[in-house]
Amino acid sequence: DSILLLHEVPVLGLLYLDFAEFEETVKVFTKECKIKGKPLPKPAGVSSRDLKALSVQKDLLTAFENGEQKVFFQLWEEHISPSVQDDEPVAQKLEFYLHIHFATYLLKHSMGKPDKTELEERISHFKAYLETKGASLSQTTEFLPFYALPFVPNPMVHPSFKELFQDSWTLDLRTRLEKFLSLTLKAGQTPLKFHPLYKKMLQHLHQQLVESEQRTMTYLKRFNKMQADYHNLIGVTAELVDSLEATVNGKMITPEYLQSVCVRLFSNQMRQSVAHSIDFTRPGTASTMLRASLGPMKMQDVPLLPSLDYEKLKKDLITGNDRLKAFLLQALRWRLTTSYPGEQRDTVLQAYITNDLLDCHSSCQRSVLKLLHSKSEVVRQYMARLINAFASLAEGRVYLSQNPMLLQMLEERLKAEDKDSLTWENVLGALQKFSLRRALQSAMIKDGLIFWLVDVLTDTDCLSDYTLEYSVALLMNLCLRSAGKKMCARIANHVLRVLSDLLGHENHEIQPYVNGALYSILAIPSIREEARAMGMEEILRCFIKEGNAEMIRQIEFIIKQLNSEEPLNDSIASDDEEEEDEEEDHDIMEADLDKDEVLQPQLGELAGEKLLTTEYLGIMTHTPKTKKKLFPGVHQSIDEPLQRPVTPGYHRTAYLM
């Protein structure tokens, strides 16, 4: 009974269109329903608008245009029902913007010399609204910046609020107000929400909501269990480290202590009584039981993948048709992304590098790297994905960095591809990982990539979560260098405005990189001065009210940096002179490398590992190479903004641990 029947949909649709006054749409909709034999409600007499409603609407619009705040909100409270004001998101958002309109009205219409007493009164009224009725929207990214408005000395010149003082903003708000009043004050029609079909649809949606909440609770329980296991594991690990330290000082570990540790580890794997009954005095018993309980694949059980004929592979990558090229690039990437970390993956990567798979050492006119400029969008995308996979591994970055032209090719593709394409996303991901290497950082800064990134981040609506995170993280890595800071000083106002807007972005994964970039560039006195002029401290303090403990502590560090009077010190000014080859060991294969595969094999087509081992099998020439010892990374307090280059994938999985 709660299910909305298909034959009822046209009726409900027509009722909504008629209620919302889509007159032309109603005509077309009615005509098509008649042609297709769909049932329609019997026509009802069209009632004229209530004259009183028209009069109230006119008075409200007049008060809006004349800035008569008291008159407007008196009429608003009198004629807009409390249920609409309190329960309808559209009404709540509109009312918020109306309060902004009246709070800034005098600044807009007094030629820069408003009556101070009246202006203070309006600002006080706006503050009172924010603390009471408007407080519910403080969790919304759209409105969060406006909570700083009453505290900014001159909002007309503040970059975050300039839009409020443009005629187009006021005109747009008036149009929205007029449409809202037309629907809300309209008399003589039954509101859509009281129609029986609408109620039936609500019941159906409610049932779906209940089922979704049940599923959410199931996943939440699983997550809580995983989190509890994780904390238990960390606790046991800490105890074992303490025990190892004690053994160094000659204190022996007793079998009873070992048994108590294993009981805790086995608590979710088997009955504790079983764990109690095992004889842990026998060497190897505890470790054997632990491995058996988890059942991971032992390293000796992981086979090396078959060797390939790289000469034939490279020939077909250059001379084959576009579909074959794309399938080969996909298969080669899958070899990297799906292989087990350790010897299996290391052997795959070393085979690629030893055989110069991407022609990084080749000076030929036709090379595999030139596939980045292919006319086929799919080939370009799959080439970018493979390069991004290479760049995910430290040894892969060393290999790619040996080609002097690759960075320039990637930068060209970044500016040529559509921002919503997977090609663009993977090129950006590769460049972000390149920024872990100082020489490549220097080249990107010199090429003006900071200016380009700041422009891209001005409008984040068209960016996916991946591209947003990697764009901000790349900007931060470049800002950590003194040359990057100096570039930012040339566009200080622009970069500060962009970063302050990003502080309130709904994607909280970017916060560590925004904080890191801000903290870094505020080491430059001229940028600090610009930040103070635009009221940066007030904006930051707004986010302290809303942020989590870690975010709050990082922002406190940024505010301290902002208020510092220290001149540009020598170490910051000269860090570019110390070009070091070492980089931190960030080997993370993110799942996004294999997402949204556009290439699917047709019947009879070979793909993936089957394509490689059927057509390109080579002589067994596995020679696992000892990995170059990489810089292990500097650990810093999570209370401080990031001060070392990172990738989002590594930061998520390793940095906080």
UniProtKB/TrEMBL annotation:
Signal sequence segment: none
Major location (coarse): cytoplasm
Location within or outside the cell: Cytoplasm, Cytoskeleton, Cilium basal body; Cytoplasm, Cytoskeleton, Microtubule organizing center, Centrosome, Centriole
GO CC annotations, alphabetized: centriole; ciliary basal body; ciliary tip
Ranges where the LisH domain occurs: 444-563
Lineage: superkingdom: Eukaryota
Residue stretches making up the ARMC9 CTLH-like domain: 56-186
GO annotation terms (biological process): cilium assembly
Keyword list, A-Z: Cell projection, Cilium biogenesis/degradation, Cytoplasm, Cytoskeleton
InterPro entries for the chain: ARM-like, ARM-type_fold, ARMC9, ARMC9_ARM_dom, ARMC9_CTLH-like_dom, ARMC9_LisH
PANTHER family: LISH DOMAIN-CONTAINING PROTEIN ARMC9
Protein name (database record): LisH domain-containing protein ARMC9
Species whose genome carries this gene: Athene cunicularia (Burrowing owl)
Organism phylogeny: Eukaryota, Metazoa, Chordata, Craniata, Vertebrata
